[in-house]
Design a protein that fits this description.
single chain, 449 residues, alpha/beta, D-Maltodextrin-Binding Protein, domain 2, 2 domains, four-stranded mixed β-sheet, 37% helix, globular
């Protein structure tokens, strides 16, 4: 019988907090102005689990929350342009053509680059200060210039508080024990969780268990583009650098990048990766994944239907140039169109509406409630501690600008280039030397630099 983590060890159940400041304490009086909000996260609200409520179709409880924020700021709140980033951008452009503000706030991910480079968003460097960033719960105090910027100009801010998607190693504790392999927790605590140790363990756990001459148990479950990003971060690598004059340049031939490609080429060539086994978690000892996926209802069968095995969570192993960083799957940020007269006031309205930061929340109570959604799925306290650590140390690589180039524009795309190096055995230095100027050309055109 599997023993999942008991929430009572860490916290008591907390009732939903009301907005923790009164209308009298708020210094932004918007004089009855209508604030128009666009989001693709229509079912993420501060009132409960995702899907429990909908901003575009609010029930009585959500309407009461919206009204309380309207009274706090003396404004009206309207949700508009229901849809994804493209819909948000279309609505922003419509406002520009009409000479009015049709959207005051929108959520963007990698698509933020398009309105930012078109000059359609407010730069926030001089609007948001240290005190603002420190008002968030610790897990949402992101490093600046990590998914919120184009070059060194910040356009985005945390405005959702839903998930910091740190990618971690999920390891089959039961399989390790059956195979006589030491716990990764003990290895990590000794400071020995390195690429070399990862390779040693992956080598030991990759086996032909049924004697047919083919591996059917693997050290690592998959090695696609996301996993490549994860290993790059674990070796301190970055795709670009920002020069003193502000120019952004791809820098793929730095030692950390080449080392990563060569290491991944090695583990692939030795058959230590079960690529192509999809979500069959029983056939691999370790997987790279978003840490909070372990509590995702749609992912339960992957973790809880495997021979009653127990799973643990730990940050990825560090390469020779690692800085203790963990990769972040993606990041959604809030942006303010440049037609908005008082961007900071809108930021405050959104912060109160989504309840993301002080003074609109109590940070300790907020974090306890947030973890309540995930702790039930963890098997041990170490997973809780290491998932927290991974979130605190997560960075977005590639960032939104780089992702836009790599995924939308570049030919060949990242997947084909990485496969050529890692799976086909091509020289990393040669392939990347050819690819880098192609990427730079798209980047220069995008940033007009």
């Amino acid at each position: 019988m599997k023993k999942r983590l008991s929430l009572s060890i860490f916290l008591v159940l907390i009732l939903l907090m009301a907005v923790s400041v009164s209308a009298e304490e708020v210094k932004w009086d918007l004089g009855g102005q209508t604030i128009r909000i666009q989001t693709r996260w229509e079912d993420v609200t501060p009132l409960g689990e995702r899907g429990a409520h909908n901003w575009y179709q609010p029930d009585e409880r959500l309407l009461a929350h919206i009204k309380s924020v309207e009274e706090m700021f003396n404004c009206k709140i309207e949700f508009v342009a229901r849809g994804h980033e493209g819909d948000a951008w279309a609505a922003i452009q419509e406002g520009s053509l009409l000479g009015e503000t049709t959207v005051h706030f929108a959520h963007f991910s990698a698509g933020m680059v398009v309105p930012a480079t078109a000059g359609a968003l407010h730069p926030l460097n001089d609007i948001l200060d240290d005190e603002f960033y420190e008002s968030y719960p610790i897990m949402f105090q992101y490093p600046r210039l990590s998914g919120d910027s184009v070059g060194s100009t910040i356009y985005g801010f945390e405005a959702l508080g839903h998930s910091r998607e740190a990618r971690v190693i999920m390891w089959n504790k039961s399989l390790f024990e059956r195979e006589g392999i030491e716990s990764l927790y003990d290895i990590y605590e000794r400071g020995e969780w390195t690429w070399d140790k990862f390779y040693e363990i992956a080598r030991a756990l990759t086996k032909d268990t049924d004697g047919d001459g083919e591996y059917d148990q693997y050290g690592l479950g998959a090695l696609g583009v996301k996993e490549v990003y994860d290993f790059l971060v674990s070796n301190g690598a970055r795709f670009t650098q920002i020069r003193e004059d502000g120019r952004v340049e791809f820098d793929l031939l730095r030692p950390e990048f080449l080392e990563t490609m060569e290491f991944l080429q090695k583990i692939w060539s030795e058959g230590l990766v079960g690529d192509g086994i999809s979500s069959n978690r029983s056939r691999a000892a370790m997987w790279l994944d978003i840490g909070t996926h372990i509590s995702n209802p749609g992912r339960q069968a992957e973790f809880y239907a495997i021979q009653n095995d127990e799973w643990g969570i730990i940050p990825p192993p560090q390469g020779p140039n690692g800085k203790g960083e963990v990769n972040m799957h993606t990041r959604w940020v809030g942006v303010i169109p440049n037609t908005v007269e008082d961007p900071r006031a809108v930021i405050e309205v959104v912060s109160a509406l989504f309840q993301t930061r002080e003074p609109y929340i109590d940070k300790e109570e907020w974090e306890a409630k947030w973890w309540d959604r995930h702790l039930w799925a963890l098997y041990d306290y170490e997973s809780f501690e290491y998932l927290q650590e991974a979130m605190r140390n997560s960075v977005l690589v590639p960032d939104h600008v780089e992702t836009r180039v790599l995924v939308v524009h570049a030919e060949p795309k990242a997947e084909a280039v990485f496969d050529q190096i890692i799976k086909q055995g091509a020289s990393a230095a040669s392939v990347l030397a050819e690819w880098e100027p192609v990427l730079q050309g798209y980047l220069d055109e995008m940033l007009k630099q």
